[in-house]
Amino acid sequence: MSLYVVISPTARADGIYPIRGYAGPSGRLDVVARAYLAVLESNAVLAALLMSGALSPRLLIAPASCRDRVRSERSFMVEASRALRGRPSCFIVEDGGVEALIFTLKKFKPRILLSERGRDVSLHLDEVCSSTPAFIAGSHVDPPRELLERLERSLGGFIRVSVGPLSLHTDHVFLLLSALRAHSSPT
Ligand SMILES: C[S@@+](CC[C@H](N)C(=O)[O-])C[C@H]1O[C@@H](n2cnc3c(N)ncnc32)[C@H](O)[C@@H]1O
Q1: pLDDT above 70 (res 186)
Q2: pLDDT value of residue 148
Q3: What are the pLDDT digits (tens) for 105-116?
Q4: I want to staple 97 with a disulfide (CB 3.0 to 4.6 A). Which of 59, 77, 118, 158 is the partner?
Q5: What pLDDT was estimated at residue 29?
Q6: Cα distance between residue 55 and residue 52, in whole Å
Q7: Cα(107) to centroid of ligand 1, in Å?
Q8: 187 pLDDT exceeds 60?
Q9: What is the CATH number of the domain that holds 69?
Q10: In Å, what is the CA distance from 69 to each residue of 63, 75, 93?
Q11: pLDDT at 185
Q12: 94 occurs within a structural domain
């Protein structure tokens, strides 16, 4: 099982946004939705740290069991809004988001931070294709440096991996990684 994490400094943690025209009003939670949909593995978990709005950061978790139900960007946005507003949902919300993220990340290893400035992915294929990795990426903007430093202190560091010199969208990075993992899995 793998964990894909998106850290979004701008996504609203209260789930209050319209279901039509949600991109701006949600603080670009649509970027997280597309990152979720890009992951090919059926047993992957997605966790998103939503850091904006009046509430403290919260952790939105999309378990693997939601994959059959949430198959479009819009259904992700509906399900996320329900979970964040305390309504029944297959997603889970943890308050105390940063600590919840650290707790979740501790269950996965190795922990791979995706960064344009990391070491080339070809040098880390064993770690990328291992059984329980965590992949951590920014949203449409990078994660705040202080947050990464805090996570690193709590978790004892990351492997920093790049999938190339260009700055890509988060969903493209996740698609590439999960395709590499699918390719390496025994048939
Ligand atoms: C759209 S980028 C964020 C902003 C981008 N770093 C910039 O300054 O324009 C989204 C996230 O995808 C990941 N990412 C983007 N390009 C990457 C690459 N070439 N290799 C590894 N990760 C990458 C990083 O985690 C980044 O925070």
Answers
A1: no
A2: 97
A3: 999 999 999 999
A4: 59
A5: 98
A6: 7
A7: 24
A8: no
A9: 3.40.1280.10
A10: 11, 8, 17
A11: 66
A12: yes
**Inter-residue contact 161 to 115 (CB < 8 Å):** yes
187 within some domain: no
Atom of ligand 1 nearest to the CA of 142: 27
Query: Considering only CA atoms, which residue is closest to atom 18 of ligand 1?
Result: 116
How many folded domains does the chain comprise?
1
> Is position 130 within any domain?
yes
From the CA of 86, how far away is ligand 1's center (Å)?
31
Percentage of the chain surpassing pLDDT 90? 96
Domain region containing 162: 3-182
Q: What is the mean pLDDT of the chain?
A: 96
pTM: 0.96
Q: In ligand 1, which atom is closest to the CA atom of 170? A: 12
In the block, tokens 């259904």 appear at: 75
In 3D space, the residue among 35, 29, 3 whose CA is nearest the CA of residue 81 turns out to be 29
Cα-Cα-Cα-Cα torsion 58, 43, 82, 139, nearest 10 degrees, comes to 50
Q: Are strands 159-162 and 92-94 parallel, antiparallel or unpaired?
A: unpaired
What is the distance in A from the centroid of ligand 1 to the CA of 19? 27
pLDDT value of position 183: 86
For a ligand 1 pocket test, name from 7, 39, 51, 116 the mutation site with the most ligand atoms within 8 angstroms of its C-beta. Answer: 116
